[in-house]
Each structure stands twice: as structure tokens, then as C-alpha cells.
Specification:
The chain is α/β, with parallel strands linked by helices. 36% of the residues lie in helices and 18% in strands.
Length: 332
């Protein structure tokens, strides 16, 4: 696999607040060195809502010798505002690329859920709620998404290509049925759960039909027993309606389940000729560890490090599994 990657959150603005409140360039610099030197990554997907933060993190990633996937991750914006954001980020990514960095521009991700205009709902939470009751109504709503989304993505590419001279892609949900013709990579967020475990390998293999290199922009698992079966929905165990946030039930920490999931999926990606893959994520900055299991939000984090309330961190089992897999002597 060419690109051995991980996601890095600079802070996304979502209905519950920022996913990362504090952002310090010196901290980012140290963490990029850890990603390059200790995790042996060759690429990092730098994501978030603030273009200024993205530019800082991208610069630090490039200085660490990493291929930079410059990935604005907006939430609850209209398509008009999205176009302006992507144009801004394209110019910033091009500035870095012209300094000699290897840069790929990722024009958003999972927009059918995270943006206005593709599914009904006033905000992200309302749109996510549609998926709580799968059935004919949801299938009907999803069937209308590809035409609208692909028309918009074509407009996005026409907007960013004049400003950015590198490769361009989009981080898709499998159900979005993206037309990859305007892009340089097929890129999907590929989570394995109980619902698709039997077909997961075939789903990855099928992506090659488009004739472009295949990239997994996200894959991951939380660190509690049973999280592997929940895949991309593993984070949905936090009760955010109470202060302070707490888990909605009793869960058992199981870092080895997270690490095993990581090794299993990397093996699939390698065998199915995936060009690059990005574990989600380095750290869940707004999901700190707590000694009381009911308040241990780290269990609902996909991070390979465990964040403490003072924002210091320590590696989890998945950190060591990723470092071994990506390292020179590692094996998937």
C-alpha cells in the first residue's frame, strides 16, 4: 500500500460544538512528528472546518515529510458557502504545493449528511436521525441523493481545478454513488460493521471498477467491547443531552478489539490493492478519558491515543498496532 495514513482533526464545528476547542501550532508540530516518526505514516489527512487551522496543520505535516491530504470538513453549510470554502482551501493547498509539498485536495466528505441540500433536516443531527429507522422512506430519500450530489461535485471540481494544480478527490459514503469521472482518486469512508462484514472485502474490490486508484479516507473502530460490530456508528454511545457528557450505558474498555480491527482491515486493503488508507483518527480531542467508566468518553473515540482532561495523551493498543503495521518490519 503506497499511502500509510491517519486522519488528524484540526477542529470541526458540529451541532455539539467544536470537536477540538484548543488548537496550538506547537502541539500540532509535535504530533505530526509522532505521526511521521513513531507511527511511520507516510500521509496524513488534515481535516476540519477552519481554513486557517487547516493551513497551519498542513504546513506542519509537510515539514514532517508527510504527504498532505488537505481536507476541509464543513458541517451544515449551504452549497453556495461550500463552493466559497473549497475555493479558499484550493488556493491554500496550492500555495503549499508550490513550496514543494505533496498535496491532495479533498473537497469535503459525506456531504449528503453533513451539508444542506441533499437530505431533509435542519442540521446534522436531524439528518442522522433519518438513518435510525431504515426502510422504504429512507431508501427513497437516498435514491435522490446521487443526482443532486454529483451535479454539485462537478461544480466543485470546476471551481477548484483552476486554483489547485494537484490531485483532487472527495471522501464519499458508499451510499452516495459518486460519479468519479472528474476526480483523480476513488475515495470512500469504509467502515466494517456487523451489517457488512460478510461483504466488506467485495465492496472494496468493487471500487476498482472505476479505473482510478482507490483510497480509503476513513476506517476505524472505537475501543470498547462490541465496537467492531458497530463500525462507523461506534461513537453513538454518548449522552450529549446531560452535563457533563457521559456514556449511555455500561461499556467495557477493550483496546485489543480496536487494534485487531485495525490489523484486519489493513490486511484487506493491502490484499485488495488499495492505494492509500487513513485510520480514523489520531485523537478524539473532545472525548477525554475518565477513571469512572460511565464518564470515560475515550471509549467512544476512534483515536489511537487516549486524551486526558489536560490534553496530554498516551498511546492505546491501536497506536502500537498501527506503528507495527506501517513500520519497516511490520506486517498487516
Amino acid at each position: 500500500m503506497r499511502g500509510k495514513g491517519i486522519n488528524y482533526d484540526t477542529g470541526a464545528r458540529v451541532p455539539a460544538g467544536w470537536t477540538r476547542e484548543e488548537f496550538d501550532a506547537a502541539v500540532v508540530r509535535r504530533e505530526m512528528r509522532v505521526i511521521a516518526d513513531e507511527l511511520h505514516c507516510t500521509a496524513v489527512r488534515v481535516s476540519g472546518s477552519d481554513p486557517d487551522r487547516l493551513a497551519v496543520a498542513a504546513e506542519q505535516a509537510a515539514e514532517a515529510g508527510l504527504e498532505v491530504w488537505f481536507a476541509p470538513f464543513p458541517c451544515d453549510l449551504t452549497t453556495e458557502r461550500l463552493l466559497a470554502l473549497f475555493a479558499d482551501c484550493a488556493a491554500r493547498a496550492e500555495s503549499l504545493r508550490r513550496k514543494g509539498a505533496d498535496v491532495v485536495l479533498v473537497t469535503g466528505g459525506e456531504l449528503s449528511i453533513f451539508a444542506h441540500g441533499f437530505l431533509p433536516g435542519d442540521d446534522l443531527l436531524a439528518r442522522l436521525a433519518l438513518f435510525a429507522t431504515p426502510g422504504p422512506e429512507l431508501r427513497s430519500l437516498l435514491s435522490a441523493v446521487p443526482a443532486r450530489l454529483n451535479a454539485f461535485l462537478a461544480e466543485v471540481v470546476r471551481t477548484v481545478r483552476p486554483a489547485f494544480g494537484g490531485k483532487v478527490t472527495y471522501a464519499a459514503l458508499p451510499v452516495e454513488r459518486v460519479d468519479w469521472t472528474p476526480f483523480d482518486y476513488v475515495a470512500v469512508d469504509a467502515y466494517r460493521g456487523a451489517h457488512n462484514a460478510a461483504t466488506f472485502r467485495e465492496e472494496i474490490r468493487e471500487l476498482h471498477r472505476h479505473g482510478l486508484p482507490v483510497v480509503v479516507t476513513e476506517f476505524g473502530c472505537c475501543s470498547y467491547r462490541g465496537a467492531a460490530d458497530r463500525g462507523g456508528r461506534g461513537w453513538m454511545i454518548v449522552d450529549r443531552d446531560r452535563e457533563p457528557w457521559r456514556l449511555d450505558g455500561d461499556y467495557v474498555r477493550d483496546e485489543e478489539e480496536q487494534a485487531s480491527y485495525l490489523r484486519d482491515l489493513l490486511r484487506v486493503f493491502e490484499q485488495e490493492n488499495v492505494d492509500s488508507a487513513f485510520w480514523f483518527t489520531f485523537a478524539g480531542y473532545n472525548h477525554p478519558h475518565h477513571p469512572d467508566p460511565r464518564y470515560d468518553l475515550d471509549l467512544a473515540s476512534y483515536g489511537v491515543v487516549k486524551i486526558h482532561p489536560d490534553l496530554s495523551w498516551e498511546p492505546k493498543s491501536a497506536f502500537h498496532a498501527l506503528a507495527a503495521a506501517y513500520g519497516k518490519g511490520g506486517a498487516y
